[in-house]
Amino acid sequence: MIIRYFPSSVALLAAISFLQMSCTDSEIDSSDISEITQSIFVVPEGFYGEPYSSQYKSSDKFYVNINEKIRICGVYSINGKYATSEEAIPYYSTHKWTIDDNESSSASVYYSFNKTGKHKITLETIDFLGDTLISHATIYVNTPTKISLQSPADKYNQVNGENPDGIELSWIISGVDPWETATCGLYASYDKKNVWKSLLGETDCSNSVNLLGKLDLEVNEKGDSINHSIEPSTIYWGVRAKIQNEKGSSNQTYSDVFSFSTKLQNNGDAIIEIPVSCMFNQYPEQSRLTGTFISAAGDTLSKVSGIKANSVIRKTFKPQSNIKIVICDTIRTEYGCDSMIVDLPPSTKTITDTLFLKDNIKPNMSPVATEFSTSSPIKFFLLDNGAGINVSKNFVTINADTLQTKYEDYTLSIPNTCKKECKLIINAEDYARNKTPDVYWKIKINDSKASITGPFPKTESDK
Q1: Are 352 and 399 part of one and the same domain?
Q2: Which end of the chain is less crowded, N or C, counting CB atoms within 10 A of the terminal residue's CB?
Protein backbone atom coordinates (compact mmCIF):
# COMPACT_ATOMS: atom_id res chain seq x y z
CA MET A 1 0.00 0.00 0.00
CA ILE A 2 1.27 3.52 -0.87
CA ILE A 3 0.44 6.64 1.14
CA ARG A 4 1.22 10.08 -0.31
CA TYR A 5 1.61 13.05 1.98
CA PHE A 6 3.73 16.13 2.75
CA PRO A 7 6.73 15.44 4.93
CA SER A 8 5.91 18.28 7.38
CA SER A 9 2.80 19.82 8.92
CA VAL A 10 3.90 23.27 7.69
CA ALA A 11 3.91 22.09 4.10
CA LEU A 12 0.57 20.42 4.67
CA LEU A 13 -1.08 23.63 5.94
CA ALA A 14 0.34 25.56 3.01
CA ALA A 15 -1.10 23.05 0.57
CA ILE A 16 -4.54 23.15 2.21
CA SER A 17 -4.59 26.99 2.10
CA PHE A 18 -3.61 26.91 -1.57
CA LEU A 19 -6.44 24.53 -2.41
CA GLN A 20 -8.98 26.64 -0.53
CA MET A 21 -7.95 29.80 -2.41
CA SER A 22 -7.70 28.21 -5.84
CA CYS A 23 -10.68 28.28 -8.16
CA THR A 24 -9.03 26.10 -10.81
CA ASP A 25 -8.51 22.33 -11.20
CA SER A 26 -4.77 22.70 -10.63
CA GLU A 27 -3.05 19.72 -8.88
CA ILE A 28 -0.09 19.63 -6.54
CA ASP A 29 3.17 18.94 -8.33
CA SER A 30 4.10 15.24 -7.83
CA SER A 31 7.65 16.25 -6.97
CA ASP A 32 6.35 17.70 -3.69
CA ILE A 33 4.77 14.39 -2.57
CA SER A 34 6.58 11.53 -0.80
CA GLU A 35 5.71 7.87 -1.35
CA ILE A 36 5.84 5.83 1.85
CA THR A 37 6.04 2.03 1.88
CA GLN A 38 6.93 -0.49 4.55
CA SER A 39 8.62 -3.90 4.54
CA ILE A 40 9.08 -6.75 7.00
CA PHE A 41 12.50 -8.23 7.75
CA VAL A 42 13.49 -11.11 10.04
CA VAL A 43 17.06 -11.18 11.38
CA PRO A 44 18.87 -13.03 14.20
CA GLU A 45 18.31 -11.68 17.71
CA GLY A 46 21.89 -10.43 18.01
CA PHE A 47 21.93 -8.69 14.63
CA TYR A 48 23.23 -5.11 14.79
CA GLY A 49 22.56 -2.41 12.18
CA GLU A 50 19.91 -1.79 9.54
CA PRO A 51 18.46 -5.07 8.14
CA TYR A 52 18.34 -3.76 4.56
CA SER A 53 22.10 -3.12 4.55
CA SER A 54 22.93 -6.82 5.05
CA GLN A 55 22.30 -10.11 3.26
CA TYR A 56 18.78 -10.28 4.69
CA LYS A 57 15.82 -9.54 2.42
CA SER A 58 12.28 -8.34 3.04
CA SER A 59 9.60 -10.91 2.31
CA ASP A 60 6.17 -12.17 3.14
CA LYS A 61 7.59 -15.63 3.97
CA PHE A 62 10.30 -16.47 6.49
CA TYR A 63 11.69 -19.81 7.69
CA VAL A 64 13.04 -20.24 11.22
CA ASN A 65 13.71 -23.09 13.63
CA ILE A 66 11.66 -23.81 16.71
CA ASN A 67 12.83 -21.71 19.71
CA GLU A 68 15.22 -19.79 17.47
CA LYS A 69 15.64 -16.26 18.82
CA ILE A 70 14.89 -13.69 16.12
CA ARG A 71 14.14 -9.99 15.67
CA ILE A 72 11.18 -9.03 13.49
CA CYS A 73 11.74 -5.57 12.01
CA GLY A 74 9.58 -3.07 10.17
CA VAL A 75 11.53 -0.97 7.65
CA TYR A 76 10.11 2.12 5.91
CA SER A 77 10.99 3.42 2.45
CA ILE A 78 10.69 7.05 1.34
CA ASN A 79 10.25 7.45 -2.41
CA GLY A 80 11.48 3.91 -2.92
CA LYS A 81 14.61 4.31 -0.81
CA TYR A 82 15.04 2.54 2.53
CA ALA A 83 15.11 4.94 5.48
CA THR A 84 16.88 4.45 8.78
CA SER A 85 14.79 4.16 11.92
CA GLU A 86 15.53 7.80 12.77
CA GLU A 87 14.77 9.06 9.25
CA ALA A 88 11.38 7.33 9.26
CA ILE A 89 10.14 8.84 12.55
CA PRO A 90 8.58 12.03 11.03
CA TYR A 91 6.46 9.98 8.63
CA TYR A 92 4.24 8.01 11.03
CA SER A 93 2.46 8.45 14.33
CA THR A 94 2.03 4.86 15.54
CA HIS A 95 2.73 1.31 14.51
CA LYS A 96 1.59 -2.04 15.89
CA TRP A 97 2.71 -5.64 15.47
CA THR A 98 0.33 -8.58 15.72
CA ILE A 99 2.04 -11.95 16.01
CA ASP A 100 -0.51 -14.75 16.26
CA ASP A 101 -2.68 -13.29 19.06
CA ASN A 102 0.02 -11.12 20.62
CA GLU A 103 0.37 -7.37 20.05
CA SER A 104 3.34 -5.04 20.45
CA SER A 105 3.97 -1.38 19.68
CA SER A 106 7.78 -1.72 19.55
CA ALA A 107 9.68 -0.68 16.46
CA SER A 108 11.02 -4.24 16.24
CA VAL A 109 9.99 -7.35 18.13
CA TYR A 110 12.30 -9.91 19.73
CA TYR A 111 10.59 -13.26 19.49
CA SER A 112 10.92 -17.04 19.45
CA PHE A 113 8.28 -19.57 18.49
CA ASN A 114 7.88 -22.63 20.70
CA LYS A 115 5.39 -24.29 18.33
CA THR A 116 6.11 -25.51 14.83
CA GLY A 117 3.89 -24.66 11.87
CA LYS A 118 2.74 -21.45 10.20
CA HIS A 119 2.53 -18.22 12.20
CA LYS A 120 0.91 -15.02 10.87
CA ILE A 121 2.42 -11.61 11.55
CA THR A 122 1.00 -8.18 10.69
CA LEU A 123 2.57 -4.72 10.80
CA GLU A 124 0.03 -1.88 10.93
CA THR A 125 1.24 1.73 10.66
CA ILE A 126 -0.74 4.96 10.94
CA ASP A 127 0.80 8.08 9.44
CA PHE A 128 0.23 11.71 10.51
CA LEU A 129 -2.64 12.03 8.03
CA GLY A 130 -4.42 9.11 9.65
CA ASP A 131 -3.94 6.77 6.71
CA THR A 132 -3.20 3.12 7.50
CA LEU A 133 -0.46 0.98 6.03
CA ILE A 134 -0.76 -2.80 6.54
CA SER A 135 1.77 -5.54 5.71
CA HIS A 136 1.38 -9.28 6.28
CA ALA A 137 3.90 -12.09 6.43
CA THR A 138 4.00 -15.76 7.39
CA ILE A 139 6.74 -17.30 9.49
CA TYR A 140 7.24 -21.01 8.93
CA VAL A 141 8.66 -22.62 12.07
CA ASN A 142 10.51 -25.79 11.16
CA THR A 143 10.17 -29.06 13.01
CA PRO A 144 13.60 -30.42 14.05
CA THR A 145 14.62 -33.14 11.62
CA LYS A 146 15.81 -36.47 12.97
CA ILE A 147 17.07 -39.58 11.19
CA SER A 148 16.83 -42.92 13.02
CA LEU A 149 18.66 -45.86 11.47
CA GLN A 150 16.52 -49.00 11.63
CA SER A 151 18.03 -52.02 9.91
CA PRO A 152 20.33 -53.78 10.29
CA ALA A 153 20.50 -53.08 14.02
CA ASP A 154 23.69 -51.46 15.26
CA LYS A 155 26.53 -54.00 15.62
CA TYR A 156 24.54 -56.75 13.90
CA ASN A 157 27.11 -59.47 13.22
CA GLN A 158 25.38 -62.19 11.18
CA VAL A 159 25.66 -60.84 7.62
CA ASN A 160 26.62 -63.22 4.83
CA GLY A 161 29.94 -61.91 3.53
CA GLU A 162 29.20 -63.16 0.01
CA ASN A 163 25.91 -61.17 0.16
CA PRO A 164 24.21 -62.88 -2.83
CA ASP A 165 20.78 -61.39 -2.06
CA GLY A 166 22.00 -58.02 -0.83
CA ILE A 167 21.33 -56.46 2.57
CA GLU A 168 18.64 -53.85 3.16
CA LEU A 169 19.62 -50.61 4.87
CA SER A 170 16.59 -48.74 6.18
CA TRP A 171 15.90 -45.65 8.28
CA ILE A 172 13.10 -43.37 9.43
CA ILE A 173 13.18 -39.60 8.99
CA SER A 174 10.93 -37.27 10.97
CA GLY A 175 10.42 -33.51 11.05
CA VAL A 176 10.09 -32.81 7.31
CA ASP A 177 7.42 -30.08 7.14
CA PRO A 178 4.86 -29.66 4.31
CA TRP A 179 6.87 -26.72 2.89
CA GLU A 180 10.08 -28.78 2.79
CA THR A 181 11.52 -31.54 0.62
CA ALA A 182 14.17 -34.03 1.69
CA THR A 183 16.84 -35.96 -0.18
CA CYS A 184 18.86 -38.61 1.64
CA GLY A 185 22.45 -39.61 0.94
CA LEU A 186 23.72 -43.02 2.02
CA TYR A 187 27.30 -43.19 3.29
CA ALA A 188 29.28 -46.35 4.10
CA SER A 189 32.91 -47.28 4.70
CA TYR A 190 35.06 -50.01 6.22
CA ASP A 191 36.82 -47.20 8.11
CA LYS A 192 34.64 -45.47 10.70
CA LYS A 193 36.65 -42.25 10.42
CA ASN A 194 35.85 -41.99 6.69
CA VAL A 195 32.11 -42.70 6.74
CA TRP A 196 31.03 -39.14 5.89
CA LYS A 197 33.59 -38.99 3.07
CA SER A 198 32.13 -42.06 1.33
CA LEU A 199 28.85 -41.26 -0.43
CA LEU A 200 27.31 -44.32 -2.12
CA GLY A 201 24.38 -42.46 -3.64
CA GLU A 202 21.25 -40.39 -3.00
CA THR A 203 17.58 -41.34 -2.85
CA ASP A 204 14.20 -40.11 -1.67
CA CYS A 205 14.23 -40.17 2.13
CA SER A 206 11.19 -42.46 2.22
CA ASN A 207 13.10 -45.24 0.45
CA SER A 208 15.37 -47.94 1.78
CA VAL A 209 18.49 -49.18 -0.02
CA ASN A 210 19.57 -52.71 -0.89
CA LEU A 211 23.37 -52.95 -0.66
CA LEU A 212 24.65 -55.45 -3.23
CA GLY A 213 28.05 -57.03 -3.79
CA LYS A 214 30.56 -59.01 -1.74
CA LEU A 215 31.12 -57.52 1.71
CA ASP A 216 34.14 -59.49 2.94
CA LEU A 217 37.35 -57.55 2.40
CA GLU A 218 40.50 -59.37 1.36
CA VAL A 219 42.78 -56.83 3.05
CA ASN A 220 42.14 -54.20 5.73
CA GLU A 221 42.82 -50.46 5.51
CA LYS A 222 46.46 -51.11 6.48
CA GLY A 223 46.92 -53.51 3.58
CA ASP A 224 47.09 -56.62 5.80
CA SER A 225 45.29 -59.78 4.70
CA ILE A 226 42.15 -60.61 6.68
CA ASN A 227 41.77 -64.12 8.14
CA HIS A 228 37.99 -64.51 7.98
CA SER A 229 38.01 -67.53 10.26
CA ILE A 230 38.83 -65.23 13.18
CA GLU A 231 38.06 -61.71 11.89
CA PRO A 232 34.93 -60.39 10.16
CA SER A 233 34.64 -57.39 7.88
CA THR A 234 32.83 -54.51 9.54
CA ILE A 235 30.97 -51.83 7.59
CA TYR A 236 30.04 -48.47 9.11
CA TRP A 237 27.12 -46.56 7.61
CA GLY A 238 24.98 -43.49 8.10
CA VAL A 239 22.45 -41.27 6.34
CA ARG A 240 22.58 -37.54 5.66
CA ALA A 241 19.37 -35.68 4.82
CA LYS A 242 19.36 -32.44 2.83
CA ILE A 243 16.25 -30.44 3.75
CA GLN A 244 15.17 -27.68 1.36
CA ASN A 245 12.34 -25.15 1.80
CA GLU A 246 10.19 -23.42 -0.82
CA LYS A 247 12.72 -20.61 -1.23
CA GLY A 248 15.56 -22.97 -1.98
CA SER A 249 17.38 -22.53 1.33
CA SER A 250 18.64 -25.81 2.73
CA ASN A 251 20.23 -27.40 5.77
CA GLN A 252 21.58 -30.85 6.55
CA THR A 253 20.87 -33.43 9.23
CA TYR A 254 23.04 -36.46 9.97
CA SER A 255 22.13 -39.77 11.56
CA ASP A 256 24.24 -41.67 14.06
CA VAL A 257 26.78 -44.09 12.59
CA PHE A 258 25.79 -47.76 12.81
CA SER A 259 27.86 -50.80 11.95
CA PHE A 260 27.30 -54.41 10.88
CA SER A 261 29.75 -57.29 10.47
CA THR A 262 30.06 -60.38 8.33
CA LYS A 263 29.99 -63.90 9.78
CA LEU A 264 33.23 -65.81 10.39
CA GLN A 265 34.22 -68.52 7.95
CA ASN A 266 35.01 -71.12 10.62
CA ASN A 267 33.58 -74.24 12.25
CA GLY A 268 30.87 -72.30 14.06
CA ASP A 269 32.85 -71.03 17.06
CA ALA A 270 32.03 -67.55 18.37
CA ILE A 271 34.50 -64.87 19.43
CA ILE A 272 33.78 -62.25 22.08
CA GLU A 273 35.73 -59.06 22.89
CA ILE A 274 34.92 -57.03 26.02
CA PRO A 275 36.58 -53.62 26.50
CA VAL A 276 36.93 -53.02 30.26
CA SER A 277 37.71 -49.78 32.05
CA CYS A 278 37.60 -48.26 35.52
CA MET A 279 35.83 -44.90 35.24
CA PHE A 280 37.88 -41.83 36.22
CA ASN A 281 40.81 -44.04 37.15
CA GLN A 282 43.95 -41.89 37.37
CA TYR A 283 46.16 -44.96 37.85
CA PRO A 284 45.06 -47.68 35.36
CA GLU A 285 48.46 -49.34 35.68
CA GLN A 286 47.71 -50.02 39.36
CA SER A 287 44.49 -51.92 38.61
CA ARG A 288 44.45 -55.70 38.41
CA LEU A 289 41.25 -57.03 36.91
CA THR A 290 39.98 -60.57 37.22
CA GLY A 291 37.11 -62.03 35.26
CA THR A 292 34.88 -65.08 35.04
CA PHE A 293 32.75 -66.32 32.14
CA ILE A 294 29.72 -68.28 33.35
CA SER A 295 27.30 -70.29 31.19
CA ALA A 296 23.52 -70.00 31.44
CA ALA A 297 23.60 -73.27 33.43
CA GLY A 298 26.02 -71.73 35.97
CA ASP A 299 29.17 -73.51 34.81
CA THR A 300 32.48 -71.64 34.74
CA LEU A 301 33.60 -71.49 31.11
CA SER A 302 36.80 -69.49 31.58
CA LYS A 303 38.68 -67.23 33.96
CA VAL A 304 41.05 -64.32 33.35
CA SER A 305 43.39 -62.52 35.76
CA GLY A 306 46.12 -59.90 35.94
CA ILE A 307 44.45 -57.57 33.43
CA LYS A 308 45.02 -53.83 33.67
CA ALA A 309 42.22 -51.30 33.33
CA ASN A 310 41.52 -49.96 29.83
CA SER A 311 42.13 -53.35 28.23
CA VAL A 312 40.18 -55.69 25.96
CA ILE A 313 39.39 -59.26 26.98
CA ARG A 314 39.09 -61.71 24.03
CA LYS A 315 37.74 -65.25 24.23
CA THR A 316 36.48 -67.97 21.87
CA PHE A 317 33.51 -70.18 22.84
CA LYS A 318 31.02 -72.54 21.34
CA PRO A 319 27.88 -70.60 20.34
CA GLN A 320 25.43 -70.18 23.22
CA SER A 321 23.06 -67.73 24.87
CA ASN A 322 23.13 -65.83 28.16
CA ILE A 323 26.83 -66.02 28.95
CA LYS A 324 27.52 -63.92 32.05
CA ILE A 325 30.79 -62.02 32.34
CA VAL A 326 31.85 -60.78 35.78
CA ILE A 327 34.85 -58.41 36.08
CA CYS A 328 36.38 -57.21 39.38
CA ASP A 329 39.28 -54.97 40.39
CA THR A 330 41.32 -56.74 43.07
CA ILE A 331 43.78 -53.87 43.71
CA ARG A 332 41.67 -50.69 43.49
CA THR A 333 38.98 -52.37 45.55
CA GLU A 334 36.56 -49.43 45.63
CA TYR A 335 35.74 -50.21 41.99
CA GLY A 336 34.29 -53.55 43.08
CA CYS A 337 32.74 -55.70 40.33
CA ASP A 338 30.42 -55.35 37.37
CA SER A 339 28.85 -57.78 34.95
CA MET A 340 26.97 -58.20 31.67
CA ILE A 341 25.09 -60.96 29.85
CA VAL A 342 25.57 -61.61 26.11
CA ASP A 343 24.50 -64.06 23.41
CA LEU A 344 27.04 -65.64 21.06
CA PRO A 345 25.54 -66.78 17.71
CA PRO A 346 27.50 -69.30 15.57
CA SER A 347 30.46 -68.01 13.54
CA THR A 348 30.26 -64.46 14.86
CA LYS A 349 32.53 -61.99 16.52
CA THR A 350 30.78 -59.94 19.19
CA ILE A 351 32.34 -56.71 20.45
CA THR A 352 30.41 -55.62 23.51
CA ASP A 353 29.94 -52.13 24.88
CA THR A 354 32.66 -51.14 27.33
CA LEU A 355 32.16 -52.68 30.74
CA PHE A 356 32.82 -49.81 33.13
CA LEU A 357 33.69 -50.44 36.76
CA LYS A 358 32.52 -47.51 38.88
CA ASP A 359 33.88 -46.14 42.15
CA ASN A 360 30.87 -45.18 44.30
CA ILE A 361 32.63 -45.10 47.67
CA LYS A 362 33.43 -41.88 49.54
CA PRO A 363 37.03 -41.12 50.56
CA ASN A 364 37.87 -41.86 54.20
CA MET A 365 39.51 -39.44 56.60
CA SER A 366 40.78 -39.69 60.16
CA PRO A 367 43.25 -37.71 62.32
CA VAL A 368 46.84 -38.91 62.26
CA ALA A 369 46.92 -38.02 65.96
CA THR A 370 44.21 -36.71 68.29
CA GLU A 371 46.75 -34.82 70.43
CA PHE A 372 49.75 -32.85 69.17
CA SER A 373 51.81 -29.72 69.75
CA THR A 374 50.16 -26.39 68.86
CA SER A 375 53.24 -25.58 66.78
CA SER A 376 52.65 -28.64 64.58
CA PRO A 377 50.24 -28.78 61.61
CA ILE A 378 46.98 -30.67 61.91
CA LYS A 379 47.28 -33.92 59.97
CA PHE A 380 44.59 -36.21 58.58
CA PHE A 381 44.83 -39.45 56.70
CA LEU A 382 42.81 -38.94 53.50
CA LEU A 383 42.41 -42.31 51.82
CA ASP A 384 40.75 -43.50 48.63
CA ASN A 385 41.38 -46.90 47.08
CA GLY A 386 39.47 -46.18 43.90
CA ALA A 387 39.66 -43.20 41.55
CA GLY A 388 42.11 -41.41 43.85
CA ILE A 389 41.95 -38.09 45.72
CA ASN A 390 41.44 -35.05 43.50
CA VAL A 391 43.75 -32.58 45.27
CA SER A 392 42.24 -29.60 43.44
CA LYS A 393 38.95 -30.26 45.26
CA ASN A 394 40.39 -30.17 48.79
CA PHE A 395 38.80 -27.32 50.78
CA VAL A 396 39.50 -26.78 54.47
CA THR A 397 38.21 -24.14 56.93
CA ILE A 398 38.85 -23.40 60.59
CA ASN A 399 36.10 -21.20 62.03
CA ALA A 400 35.10 -20.30 58.44
CA ASP A 401 38.64 -19.18 57.50
CA THR A 402 39.87 -20.95 54.36
CA LEU A 403 43.31 -22.53 54.73
CA GLN A 404 46.02 -23.64 52.31
CA THR A 405 46.70 -27.38 52.59
CA LYS A 406 49.29 -29.89 51.45
CA TYR A 407 48.53 -33.48 50.41
CA GLU A 408 51.20 -36.15 50.00
CA ASP A 409 51.67 -39.78 51.03
CA TYR A 410 47.91 -40.02 51.69
CA THR A 411 48.23 -37.34 54.39
CA LEU A 412 46.54 -33.93 54.42
CA SER A 413 48.50 -31.27 56.34
CA ILE A 414 46.60 -28.23 57.63
CA PRO A 415 48.18 -25.19 59.36
CA ASN A 416 46.95 -24.87 62.93
CA THR A 417 45.47 -21.37 63.25
CA CYS A 418 43.19 -22.18 66.19
CA LYS A 419 43.73 -20.05 69.34
CA LYS A 420 41.27 -21.60 71.80
CA GLU A 421 38.36 -23.68 70.49
CA CYS A 422 37.57 -24.07 66.80
CA LYS A 423 35.46 -25.90 64.28
CA LEU A 424 37.39 -27.70 61.52
CA ILE A 425 35.64 -28.64 58.29
CA ILE A 426 37.37 -30.75 55.63
CA ASN A 427 35.78 -31.06 52.19
CA ALA A 428 37.46 -33.40 49.73
CA GLU A 429 36.47 -35.65 46.87
CA ASP A 430 37.94 -38.29 44.60
CA TYR A 431 38.14 -38.22 40.81
CA ALA A 432 34.87 -40.16 40.66
CA ARG A 433 33.27 -37.14 42.41
CA ASN A 434 32.53 -38.97 45.64
CA LYS A 435 32.73 -36.47 48.51
CA THR A 436 33.97 -37.01 52.04
CA PRO A 437 31.27 -37.39 54.74
CA ASP A 438 29.41 -34.19 55.66
CA VAL A 439 30.91 -33.73 59.15
CA TYR A 440 33.08 -31.38 61.22
CA TRP A 441 35.75 -31.75 63.91
CA LYS A 442 36.48 -29.77 67.10
CA ILE A 443 39.93 -28.43 67.96
CA LYS A 444 40.79 -27.33 71.52
CA ILE A 445 43.96 -25.57 72.61
CA ASN A 446 45.37 -26.08 76.12
CA ASP A 447 48.67 -24.26 76.64
CA SER A 448 51.11 -25.86 74.18
CA LYS A 449 48.89 -28.86 73.43
CA ALA A 450 46.08 -29.25 70.88
CA SER A 451 43.43 -31.96 70.69
CA ILE A 452 40.93 -33.09 68.06
CA THR A 453 37.53 -34.69 68.71
CA GLY A 454 34.86 -35.82 66.28
CA PRO A 455 33.51 -36.30 63.77
CA PHE A 456 30.20 -34.54 64.42
CA PRO A 457 27.29 -34.26 61.95
CA LYS A 458 26.78 -30.80 60.48
CA THR A 459 23.63 -28.86 61.23
CA GLU A 460 21.85 -26.86 58.53
CA SER A 461 23.63 -23.70 59.70
CA ASP A 462 26.98 -25.40 59.13
CA LYS A 463 26.28 -26.24 55.49
Answers
A1: no
A2: C
